[in-house]
Amino acid sequence: MTQEKHKELKDRAFAVREHIIRMSTDGGCFTGASLSCADLIVYLYSGFLNVSKDNLQDPQRDFLLLSKGHDVPALYGTFAELGWIEKDRLKNHLKSNDSIYWHPNRNIPGIEFHSGSLGHLPAVGLGIAMDNRLRGYNNRVVVITGDGELDEGSVWETLHVASAYKMNNLTIVVDRNHFQANMKTEDLIPLEPLADKFEAFGCAVKRIDGHDFEALEETFSQLPFHKEKPSVIIADTVRGKGLPSIEARADRWFCNFNAAEVESLMKELHGAAETTLTSETLTVR
Amino acid sequence: MTTYPELIKHTALNDDRYIVMTAENRAVVKELPPLLGARFIDTGITEQTMIGMAAGLALRGRVPICHALAPFLIYRAYEFVRTDVGIAHLPVKLSAWIAGFLSDGNGPTHQAIEDVALMRTIPGMTVFCPSDNADMVAMLPEIWASPHPAYVRLNVRPDAYGKHTPFKTGVAEVISEGTDVTILTYGMLLEETLKAMQILKDKGLSVGLLNMRSLKPVDEQAILKVAATSKLLVSIEDHFLTGGLYSIIAEVLLKNRTTANVLPLSLNERWFKPGLLSEVLKYEGFTGEQIAERILANLA
User: Fold this and answer.
1) CA distance B158 to A186
2) Residue B102 backbone zone (phi > 0: left; psi -120 to 50: alpha; other: beta)
3) How many whole angstroms separate alpha carbon B287 and alpha carbon B43?
4) What is the pLDDT of residue B300?
5) Would strands B150-153 and B173-176 be described as parallel, antiparallel, or unpaired?
6) What's the rounded mean pLDDT across residues A257-266?
7) In terms of residue numbers, what domain contains A84?
8) Which domain holds residue B28?
9) How much is the ipTM here?
10) For the segment A174-192, what is each residue's pLDDT rounded down to a tens digit?
């Protein structure tokens, strides 16, 4: 990866994190989960996937599906930075005059399918991948899941089927931030050894640091990992990445900060001291 | 085309938008794998994956026709039907095997007798219950060609009536008109209801009969007409009392600020006693003779 490209990705991810923080007030959003996958989403939309605001009707474009829909602020922030939607539009978060709310929906250009209920989009992605295969297209379908989401049996059911049909055009990316809603995954329903589980379900697996653009580039450029298997990338990430005051904290999944905290967190993102959070810890699930 | 296998074969072979899917229920599609190749998809015993996958295919312009036993197709996968097919309003067609009394000896795990209730609550979902094989084959081309999601209680039983009129979505089939009593029914119970109607007519009663093959959209005008012209309405269904045809009639009457005497013959707050279909009908009081007796008792 060139230095210019690396800087472009880093700058864009930084701007996306600013958007996420700005959306974490006046009702709030799933800040921690959005920050963990911001680098992944920025990387995928910054040249890897063949999808742009100009080819959203092209049936041969690549598809990205956000199965852990509650991290959609990362996606909206990316769309805003790429010019797919107006940056000002993000101020409509949770307003009834727009469709920008806690989970993705197809009223926003670039959102391929709605989500929010976990464990659905691996199956929907499998359907899209099957249609691509029937048409003889070689475009990709990438589905981002959470790690807590892997508790849902439907994910594994779909992997079974995808593997039986040798769907090498389907890639599952796990945002492995090591937390589910209120707890560490390993303290509630342990997932490890996770790579072994995916392999046992017939997938070809690689595990990387989900915040390292060089590693992302090196890994994604190898897709598909096996010519007869679905690919799985376990991206180890940090919940709340970029804001030390909320990083890897079980109690900062959904955040509704007050205005002073938002300003302080913005400074924190820019390298200032940690923020003293006084707003209520929210448990939404 | 006189059978489901012939119809689906003809439909899918002539239009490559159609994808035939099954969660390992091949009863009516067993000839199709070699004919359709990759457009026949058996996902194994995975109703949720099948429905999610169908949504993905439909999103790309396909029309998936999904097969499974009714309770697994729409109960196991209910949230996938509601969330993936319903919210996106995709033309996924649900072909439900052994709904209602047709699960005969399987027991309550297999009894889809709340299917109409559940499916009609999904915005945009259409719901159809053909009364026999001929009715079904007449209905499916329009249902499959429509841009809406659809739930169909498959029914391959022999022709009960012999004179089905052409199908139109949202229109009831008027089999008979009468002023003493009008029976509204759907699905496989039309056969016994026809016998009941004859018994009542033989006793000198003026008896109407509507085949409510399209439950959503429903023929409101037909319901309002018989409510105004018949002294008694009878709803007959192999479905729970809650949420099925009886509820539909009540909703239509109330919406139009009218009322009627309505006798519901349904399953009230319990699953039916499993057995051979003929045994089930007798035990639950749904043979032609029993239906006639229950109506006469109400008239007395």
Assistant:
1) 57
2) alpha
3) 38
4) 82
5) unpaired
6) 96
7) 3-269
8) 4-153
9) 0.95
10) 999 999 998 999 999 999 9
Whether A49 maps to a domain, the answer reads: yes
Whether B144 and B214 share a structural domain: no
Q: Is residue A20 part of a domain?
A: yes
* Tokens 């940090």 -> residue: A238
**Looking at residue B144, which CATH number applies to its domain?**
3.40.50.970
Query: Is A102 domain-assigned?
Result: yes
Given CA atoms A192, A195, A196, A198 in this order, what sign does their dihedral have?
A: positive
Whether the per-residue pLDDT at A285 is higher than 90: the answer is: no
> Does residue B160 sit within a domain?
no
- Here the CATH number for the domain that contains residue A126 is 3.40.50.970
pLDDT tens-digit series, residues B204-218 = 999 999 999 999 999
CB contact under 8 A, A59 and B48: no
Decide if B163 is inside a domain: no
Interstrand relation of A141-146 and A63-66 (parallel, antiparallel or unpaired): parallel
Mean pLDDT over all residues of chain B? Answer: 97
Which residues of chain A neighbour B58 with C-beta distances below 8 Å?
Answer: 127
| Residue B164 within any structural domain of the chain | no
- Structural domain count, chain A: 1
Which residues of chain A make contact with B85, given a CB cutoff of 8 A? none
Which residues of chain B make contact with A127, given a CB cutoff of 8 A? 52-60, 64
CA count, 13 A, side-chain hemisphere, A36: 33
User: Which residue in chain B is spatially nearest to A125 when comparing CA positions?
Assistant: B56
Dihedral of alpha carbons B27, B29, B35, B36, sign: negative
Q: Is the pTM value of this prediction over 0.95?
A: yes
Are A154 and A119 in contact, with CB atoms under 8 Å apart? yes
Using a CB–CB cutoff of 8 Å, tell me whether B58 touches chain A.
Answer: yes
